[in-house]
Structures are given as structure tokens and as C-alpha cells.
């Protein structure tokens, strides 16, 4: 049982005009909780759907528990739990009926349905039509359907996209609860860095069909040489009057937010240097903030784009 | 004003930029108009079928009567009489008169192969038709008008209502409606539900489980067969209670036809729904299959009124086969021996279309 839960090798998938997945290697060990983090259009969904056996790669190999989809489709279907990016269940079917239907596909009875209803916190909604559920409740139902067969491998494609913070938190609670029991491997895609860092031990950052970075949150952030971010805005207009560097660190101006940012090693040491620089240039601070670097900053520094932006957009830096 | 204009422009653009919708809303009606137009106008006249039964001692030689009425016999296995001299007008049309026995004539009327039945009797020519069928009435009026001159001189044309069970329009209609119900139930019930599941991505979610695809499709066939069974029974019970429509033939034969009909249309529904991801295109496809059969297969009026060259194309349509053989069971008292061939062909059509559809099915 030393074979990886999921092994993706040199996988490529091109569509008409997009290289959706462009040579990805990824090995996920049993019990890992992995986030595929990236902006819309990064190729996360295509990659996950190829792992799910819904799409076929143009090139490369995908093995789940050492088996390919061609060899063992029925077996793999039984050990996988899947939640697609958007699924609409049958409108005029209740929560319980929907679960009962899917349970029958795995040969499971009403007992399991009750367990799942409890797990996803929809016991009091079990007689409600799917069409009348809220967005968060529907996502929890999708998660419940994915969990019916107590899957060895759980693949969740954007489980909380479009949900408000409370509803997102409810989905997270279910996943954290599962994580404590440590019986399954989970891969989830997201473009929320909080979600990736909160739920997963390992984060794989994807962009334009490639893996940019892969590791634990701390490892990823420590690779990032500098450790803290100072952001500030200035009284009056005009960016030309500031010099391009604060010591060794480049000063970056964002035209949209009209804010400056600089990534430094140690705020306590570098802050006085910034104040001196401002004084020399005769500028006055309007607002000021300093914080630890996040995945968001990491992504921005690697791609020049923000996570919540589409792949085609670029931030002026 | 500008808002109104922009809103309208957007709607036109939406319409034009979806090729599927464009075809089904512009192309398809035009094609239907073209086909039906050719079918009904190219020949320029309507040929009406009449069954003629000779009497043992005809007081009036009907042939002579027809000739005297300026109706000329054009030789052939069936005689076609048409107005001489003037070009046959669509209004009067012409009559194809076939001599048969009384029993055979009755069957022809029941099957819609003849719209009028003429019987030579000592007191004149009795013309039998269903008085509540407007087409039959019209045919009678035209025939009577053509025969008028000679009839007045040499004898009489006596109209006889056909109102016995099995001879009425309602007896013709009910089995056809049941057949059509089977088609509609399968085509709209199965096709539409499958296309909708694909659009909602529910289909791909379902096949991402160990659920077998064949079981999934089978469930649609079985549930639709049961539903259309209930529909058919309700329709029949109403027709029996209100119109006194009965089933003369064997119930087993009817059940056989019912199941094979459901198979044929389930296969067709699976094929029709196998590719499309667009509700409008799906709608159009279903209509394209359903409409021609609804009109052509003789559900509401006999397809023997269509031009003769069209009949060989109509007869092999699944709905035609189903409706005709159901009528044989309902009206003529047919048993399994008479309809098993049709049932077999229907089941085979269903199996072939089903396999074809499943081969090219778009699950994801």
C-alpha cells in the first residue's frame, strides 16, 4: 500500500485555443489534504476532471491507487467521491430523496442517508425540495452526495465558490471534521487562499496549465525570501517623485488602488528606512499597513496577477 | 426610446447568433411547408377511395350510371373515375372505385382505405359513410353532385349513416390516439428529461458513480412504459364509457404492440437526445421527429387520402405501423397472429436506434 493515492505524470490537455493543462506532474500520498490553488482558467477543473475520469488527457498518465481509468473504471468509481464545480440536482426532489437515489448507485441503504444528513447538517431540510435550498445548503448536499460511499479519495471542485462567508464556514466545518478522522485523501480546487491554507496541508499553485509551486504553506512562504509586506498610500497625487527602491527592495505602485507596496525582510528594521525615504522626498503618509506575506502575495510576485483575477488580466506593477 | 431599441437589437442578436435556434425556427417550418405543400398540391387533385359492392340484381347498372354522369372509366386494377372534359378541379376531385365484397368493403372503411361505401340495391345506390366525419360527408356530397343528373333520371342515391361500432370516426381515432400517446410520452418524457439532465450537468455527476449507464437508460424505458400504460388505460376507459368504444381483438396482442411501440419510441428518444446540449435544439429535434409522424401516420385522418406516391413512405413509419396494427386489434378483432410481425419490426427499430444512440451518447 505504498503506491500514491493519485499519480499524475506529464499530463497535457489542449482545447481549441487554450493549453488547459500543459504538462503537469503531481503525486499525492494517501491521507494528504491537497489544495489546487489558482485563478479562474488556471486549469484546475480540467486537471481534476481528468483525475475523476470525466475528461481524458491528450497525453500523459493518471493512476489512482496505482490503477488507470481504462483498467479499473468500476473499481475507481467506488472509491472516489466527487463534487463537480456546478451540479444542479433534480429540482423537485427532496434532499433525502436525492441522497437516497445516489446511495442506490453504491448499493447503500437508508441508514447511510441518515448519517450523511447528520454529517452535512441538513436533517431539518431533509423534506425540502432541492430547488428551495440556499446556495450553501445545495453545496453541502453536493458534498454529502460525494461522501455517501465513504470515499478513499475525495475530489472537490470549488466547493465554496459563490458562497457567503457564513455558508463557506459551514462547508469548511464539515471538511475539518472529516480531516480529524483522517481516513481519506482529499483534493480540492479553489481560488481562495484562506480556504487552501485553512483546510489543506499541502498547496499546489497552478497557473496557465502549469504547476508554479507545491508544498506546505510554511514551505511556500519561506521560499519567498522576504517575509513581510508594507503597504501605504501618500497624500497628494503623483508617483514619479518616489525613488524605485527602498534599500534593496523594489517599491511597487498599483495604479488601481493608488497604493505603494514593498516586500521587506523585517518590518521592525526596515520601517525607519521607509520613514527616512519619505521625509527625504517630502511625502506624507495617508494610510499605512504592514502584514505577513500571504499566498496571495506569493502568487502576485510569481505571475504579476492576483488570484481572483482571470488569467488574461494583468496588474500594472 | 434608445433602451427599447437596444433591447430589441439584443434580442435579434441572440436569435441570429444561435444557429440551432435559427434552423429550427426558420429552416424547419419552411421544410415542413415544402413537404406538405408538395404532398397536397403537386397532384392538383384529391383522389377519394370508394369501395363498391355490386348487388345480385342491380336495378341500375352503376357503371352505366357513372358513365352517364360523365365519369369516365380509366382502366386499371382499381378504376379511377374522373370528370371528363374539364380538367379535374381540386374541388370535385376524382374517385378511385374498387369493387369488392361487402365484408372486404367494411374492412376498408374501418382501416380508412375507403372513405365511402357504395352498395347497389334494388331501390338505388346506397352510399354509406360516417356522418360525423366531415371528410366523408364532403366526399359524399361531391359524389352525389357528380351522379346527380343521371341519378335523378335513372334512380336514386341514398345516403346511409354508418354509426355501428367499428365504423365510426371515433373507433378509428381512439387506437391512433393511444399510439400517438406512446410516441409523445417517450419522445417528450425521455428525450427531454435526458437533455435537461445533460444541460444541468446532472448526467455527468450520475455517471461519475458506479451506476451503470444501461440501467440508467433502462429505468427511463420502464418508467415511461408504465406511465404511458396508465395514460392509455385512462383514455380507453373514457372512450369506452362515453363513446362505447370496445376492443374486439385479443388483449395479449394489444399488450405486445404496446410494449414494442414503447421500445421503438424509447430507442428513438435515446437517439434524438444523444448529442445536444441546448434546450432549443433539443426541442426542435423532437418536433422534427414527432410532427411528421403526427401528421403523416394517419392518426386524425386516414393517410390513404394522401397522394398515392406518398403512401409507401408513410407505411414504414413506426407510428403508422403501431396505429394501424392497434386499429386491427381494436376494430377488426385481430389476435397475435395478425400483428406479431409489426410488433417484431417495432421492437427491432427500437433496438437499432437505441444501440446507435448509446454508441454516440454524450455523457459528459
Please outline the helices and strands.
The complex is a heterodimer of chains A (317) and B (364).
Chain A lengths: L5 E9 L4 E10 L4 E5 L6 H8 L7 E6 L4 H11 E4 L11 H11 L4 H10 L15 H13 L5 E5 L7 H17 L3 E6 L2 H7 L2 E6 L2 E6 L1 H7 L4 E7 L10 E2 L2 E2 L1 E3 L4 E6 L2 H15 L3 E8 L2 H9 L14
Parallel strand pairs in A: 3-7, 3-8, 5-6, 6-7
Antiparallel strand pairs in A: 1-2, 1-4, 8-9, 10-14, 10-15, 11-12, 13-14
Helix pairs in contact in A: 3-4, 5-6
Chain B lengths: L1 H15 L2 H23 L5 E7 L8 H7 L2 E4 L4 E5 L10 E6 L2 H10 L4 E6 L2 E6 L4 H21 L2 E5 L7 H31 L2 H6 L5 H31 L7 H22 L6 H18 L14 H4 L3 H15 L3 H24 L5
Parallel strand pairs in B: 1-4, 1-5, 6-7
Antiparallel strand pairs in B: 2-3, 3-4, 5-6
Helix pairs in contact in B: 2-10, 6-8, 6-9, 6-10, 6-12, 8-9, 9-12, 9-13, 12-13
What does it look like?
The complex is a heterodimer of chains A (317) and B (364). Chain A has 317 residues and is an alpha/beta fold. Helix content of chain A is 34%, strand content 27%. Chain A contains 10 helices and 15 strands. Chain A has helices spanning 44-51, 69-79, 95-105, 110-119, 135-147, 165-181, 193-199, 217-223, 267-281, 295-303, and strands at 6-14, 19-28, 33-37, 59-64, 80-83, 153-157, 185-190, 202-207, 210-215, 228-234, 245-246, 249-250, 252-254, 259-264, 285-292. Chain A has a 6-stranded mixed sheet, with helices on both faces. By secondary structure, chain B is of the alpha/beta class. Chain B contains 13 helices and 7 strands. In chain B, helix 12 (318-332) runs antiparallel to helix 13 (336-359). Chain B is globular and about 75 Å long. The interface between A and B is medium-sized, with 20 and 11 residues.
Amino acid at each position: 500500500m505504498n503506491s500514491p493515492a493519485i499519480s499524475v505524470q506529464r499530463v497535457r490537455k489542449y482545447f481549441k485555443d487554450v493549453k488547459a493543462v500543459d504538462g503537469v506532474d503531481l503525486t499525492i500520498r494517501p491521507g494528504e489534504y491537497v489544495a489546487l490553488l489558482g485563478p479562474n482558467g488556471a486549469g484546475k477543473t480540467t486537471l481534476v476532471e481528468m483525475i475523476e475520469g470525466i475528461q481524458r488527457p491528450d497525453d500523459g498518465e493518471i493512476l489512482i491507487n496505482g490503477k488507470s481509468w481504462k483498467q479499473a473504471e468500476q473499481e475507481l468509481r467506488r472509491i472516489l467521491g466527487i463534487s463537480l464545480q456546478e451540479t444542479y440536482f433534480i429540482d423537485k426532489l427532496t434532499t433525502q430523496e436525492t441522497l437516497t437515489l445516489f446511495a442506490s448507485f453504491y448499493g447503500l441503504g437508508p441508514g447511510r442517508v441518515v448519517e450523511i444528513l447528520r454529517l452535512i447538517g441538513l436533517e431539518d431540510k431533509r423534506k425540502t425540495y432541492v430547488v428551495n435550498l440556499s446556495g450553501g445548503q445545495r453545496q453541502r448536499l453536493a458534498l454529502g452526495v460525494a461522501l455517501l460511499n465513504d470515499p478513499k479519495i475525495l475530489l472537490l471542485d470549488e466547493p465554496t465558490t459563490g458562497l457567503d462567508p457564513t455558508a463557506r464556514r459551514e462547508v469548511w466545518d464539515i471538511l475539518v471534521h472529516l480531516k480529524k478522522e483522517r481516513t481519506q485523501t482529499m483534493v480540492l480546487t479553489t481560488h481562495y487562499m484562506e480556504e487552501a491554507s485553512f483546510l489543506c496541508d499541502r498547496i499546489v499553485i497552478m497557473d496557465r496549465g502549469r504547476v508554479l509551486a507545491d508544498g506546505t504553506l510554511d514551505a511556500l512562504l519561506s521560499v519567498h525570501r522576504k517575509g513581510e509586506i508594507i503597504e501605504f498610500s501618500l497624500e497628494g497625487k503623483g508617483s514619479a517623485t518616489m525613488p524605485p527602491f527602498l534599500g534593496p527592495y523594489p517599491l511597487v505602485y498599483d495604479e488601481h488602488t493608488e497604493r505603494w507596496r514593498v516586500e521587506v525582510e523585517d518590518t521592525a528594521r526596515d520601517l525607519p528606512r521607509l520613514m527616512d525615504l519619505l521625509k527625504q522626498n517630502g511625502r506624507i503618509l495617508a494610510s499605512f499597513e504592514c502584514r505577513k506575506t500571504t499566498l496571495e502575495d506569493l502568487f502576485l510576485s510569481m505571475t504579476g496577477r492576483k488570484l481572483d483575477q482571470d488569467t488574461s488580466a494583468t496588474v500594472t506593477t | 426610446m434608445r433602451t427599447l431599441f437596444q433591447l430589441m437589437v439584443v434580442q435579434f442578436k441572440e436569435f441570429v447568433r444561435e444557429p440551432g435556434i435559427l434552423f429550427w425556427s426558420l429552416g424547419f417550418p419552411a421544410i415542413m411547408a415544402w413537404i406538405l405543400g408538395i404532398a397536397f398540391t403537386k397532384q392538383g387533385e384529391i383522389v377519394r377511395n370508394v369501395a363498391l359492392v355490386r348487388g345480385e340484381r342491380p336495378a341500375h347498372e352503376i357503371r352505366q350510371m357513372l358513365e352517364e354522369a360523365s365519369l369516365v372509366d380509366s382502366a386499371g386494377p382499381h378504376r379511377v373515375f374522373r370528370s371528363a372534359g374539364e380538367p379535374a378541379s381540386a374541388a370535385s376531385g376524382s374517385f378511385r372505385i374498387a369493387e369488392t365484397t361487402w365484408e372486404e368493403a367494411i374492412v376498408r372503411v374501418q382501416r380508412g382505405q375507403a372513405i365511402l361505401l357504395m352498395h347497389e340495391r334494388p331501390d338505388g345506390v346506397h352510399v354509406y359513410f360516417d356522418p360525423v366525419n366531415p371528410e366523408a360527408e364532403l366526399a359524399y356530397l361531391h359524389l352525389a353532385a357528380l351522379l346527380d343528373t343521371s341519378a335523378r333520371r335513372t334512380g336514386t342515391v341514398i345516403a346511409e349513416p354508418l354509426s355501428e361500432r367499428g365504423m365510426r370516426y371515433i373507433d378509428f381515432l381512439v387506437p391512433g390516439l393511444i399510439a400517438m400517446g406512446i410516441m409523445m410520452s417517450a419522445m417528450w418524457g425521455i428525450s427531454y428529461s435526458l437533455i435537461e439532465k445533460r444541460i444541468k450537468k446532472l448526467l455527468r455527476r450520475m455517471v461519475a458513480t458506479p451506476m451503470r449507464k444501461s440501467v440508467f437508460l433502462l429505468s427511463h424505458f420502464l418508467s415511461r412504459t408504465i406511465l404511458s400504460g396508465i395514460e392509455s388505460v385512462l383514455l380507453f376507459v373514457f372512450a369506452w364509457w362515453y363513446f362505447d368504444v370496445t376492443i374486439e381483438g385479443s388483449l395479449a396482442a394489444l399488450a405486445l404492440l404496446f410494449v414494442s411501440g414503447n421500445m421503438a419510441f424509447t430507442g428513438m428518444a435515446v437517439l434524438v437526445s444523444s448529442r445536444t446540449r441546448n434546450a432549443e435544439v433539443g426541442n426542435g429535434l423532437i418536433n422534427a421527429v414527432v410532427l411528421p409522424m403526427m401528421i403523416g401516420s394517419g392518426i386524425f385522418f386516414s393517410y390513404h387520402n394522401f397522394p398515392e406516391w406518398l403512401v409507401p413512405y408513410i407505411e414504414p413509419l413506426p407510428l403508422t405501423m403501431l396505429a394501424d396494427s392497434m386499429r386491427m386489434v381494436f376494430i377488426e378483432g385481430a389476435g397475435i397472429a395478425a400483428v406479431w410481425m409489426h410488433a417484431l419490426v417495432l421492437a427491432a427499430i427500437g433496438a437499432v436506434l437505441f444501440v446507435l444512440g448509446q454508441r454516440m451518447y454524450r455523457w459528459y
